[in-house]
Amino acid sequence: MSKKVMLLGNGGHAKVIADMIAHTDEFTLAGFLDSNIETYSLNNDLIFDNMDNIHLYSDCKFVIAIGNNKIRKIIVEKYNLDETQFVSVIATSAYVASNAKIGIGTVVMPNAIINEDAVIGNHAIINSGAIIEHDNIIEDFVHISPGATLSGTVHVKAFTHIGTNATVIPNINIGKQCTIGAGSVVIKDIPDNVVAVGNPTRIIKTIN
């Protein structure tokens, strides 16, 4: 019997996850909870409700369908949700090696590749067409954007966002709460709390 899933978020990212769920027999989409939804409604058998009513849906599992890394963390803490209440959703077109590990609440989007011995943390996003090569470590609340390529043995720390079509060469460490710009090429380690862009990347800003 498929598990009922409520998506926390109702934007473009949630649309993609909803479509992923529609193509799997493991889950059934129950609806959407979002702070922008003021009152309960029912449309085509899907529930739309305010996120503050999350306690009413204890019979459902949850996925935080919001791209912003910090907001996903805030939601987990604000509503005191534990790991048993979340599921990970993997698109049917994605490839995940049999010995890769995927954390709770993580989504792996269409045509993404996660290769051997990669470890993906909790509430991460591996977006459409991203490549996570062998032995990568992707920590909690990371977002790997569409088309990004992380070569072997890359370590990305928590809350970092790797931009669209960025490339990271092997054996690189990228710090916590960083932003790597779209199309960037990372050829050396990146410290915590910075914005780095370009080919090769250069640090242009420190994040408080």
Beta-strand portion reads 25-35%
The value of Rg in angstroms is: 17 Å
Q: pLDDT under 50 segments (min length 5)?
A: none
Name the average pLDDT: 97
* Strand and helix order: EHEEEEHEEEEEEEEEEEEEEEEEEE
Number of helices: 2
> Helical residue percent?
10-25%
Determine the N-to-C terminus distance.
Answer: 46 Å
Q: Walk across the major sheet and give the strand order.
A: 6-9-12-15-18-21-23-24
| SS class | mainly beta
Number of strands: 24
Q: How many strands, which pairing sense, and closed or not: the largest β-sheet?
A: 8 strands, mixed
From the structure provided, what is the oligomeric state, counting identical versus distinct chains? single chain
The general outline is globular
Description of the structure:
With 208 residues, this protein is mainly beta. Helices cover 10% and strands 32% of the residues. It has helices spanning 12-22, 69-78; strands spanning 3-8, 27-33, 41-43, 46-49, 61-64, 89-90, 95-96, 101-102, 107-108, 113-114, 119-120, 125-126, 131-132, 137-138, 143-144, 149-150, 155-156, 161-162, 167-168, 173-174, 179-180, 185-186, 194-197, 202-206. The protein has an eight-stranded mixed sheet with strand order 6-9-12-15-18-21-23-24, covered by helices on one side. The chain has a six-stranded parallel sheet with strand order 7-10-13-16-19-22, with no helix packed on it. The chain has a five-stranded mixed sheet with strand order 3-4-2-1-5, with helices on one face. It starts with a strand and ends with a strand. The mean pLDDT is 97.
